[in-house]
């Protein structure tokens, strides 16, 4: 097909494109605003290692840096353990299983620093904030008990999230719009490909390779 024919097909079946695109966008909007329950996220950062003065920091060597990086990785794994989850559940009197609580939590080191960020996601913003703060305290407590040294320093507390982290209605609608547009264009070209009827003089000449001498118009029998 030539480019002109593509535009003709789109122009002829533009209504299908509009209907499919608007339908997918509308479904996405309804799901984002009314069906999917919002999820809130609360973050808290802790520093791993003992607080040092400037002289001690200047004396740090390469081995010390590697040691702290290993400690960050170790404490990142401790966060996701069952014993820490059970301590959080007991401190907040939560009515959930440790596995369910662990599924709500993620932890990530901040680059090459000694900070780790604990992130909690929940349908209740207050619940997300309280669990994040409790997790930091439980990590400090359990870490000191298991390693016989307090290497977790609490810097600040998690704040109450004011807006949901997901879903993102505008982003979902934009994605649905473009997906609907691409699907609808694919549908109209599939319909055109499956349609074997001859629709005009130009198609007859193209199929037969000979010019059309004349044509018989349709006669309206009601006249």
Automatic annotation (TrEMBL):
It is a multi-pass membrane protein. Residues 145-190 form the Tyrosine-protein kinase G-rich domain. The keyword RNA-binding does not apply. It comes from the Bacteria. One of its GO terms (molecular function) is protein tyrosine kinase activity. Belongs to the CpsC/CapA family. This is Capsular polysaccharide biosynthesis protein.
């Amino acid at each position: 097909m030539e480019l002109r024919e593509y535009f003709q097909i789109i122009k002829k079946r533009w209504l299908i494109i509009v209907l499919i695109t608007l339908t997918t966008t509308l479904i996405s909007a309804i799901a984002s605003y009314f069906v999917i329950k919002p999820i809130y996220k609360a973050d808290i950062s802790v520093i791993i290692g003992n607080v040092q003065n400037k002289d001690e920091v200047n004396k740090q060597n390469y081995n010390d840096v590697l040691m702290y990086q290993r400690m960050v990785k170790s404490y990142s794994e401790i966060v996701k353990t069952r014993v820490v989850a059970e301590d959080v559940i007991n401190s907040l009197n939560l009515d959930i299983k440790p596995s369910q609580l662990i599924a709500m939590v993620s932890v990530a080191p901040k680059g090459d620093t000694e900070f780790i960020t604990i992130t909690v996601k929940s349908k209740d913003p207050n619940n997300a904030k309280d669990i994040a703060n409790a997790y930091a305290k439980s990590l400090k407590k359990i870490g000191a008990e298991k390693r016989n040294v307090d290497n977790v320093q609490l810097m600040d507390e998690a704040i109450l999230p004011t807006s949901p982290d997901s879903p993102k209605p505008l982003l979902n609608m934009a994605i649905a719009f473009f997906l609907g547009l691409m699907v609808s264009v694919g549908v109209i070209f599939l319909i055109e490909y499956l349609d074997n009827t001859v629709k005009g003089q130009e198609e007859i000449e193209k199929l037969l390779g000979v010019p059309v001498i004349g044509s018989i118009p349709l006669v309206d029998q009601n006249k």
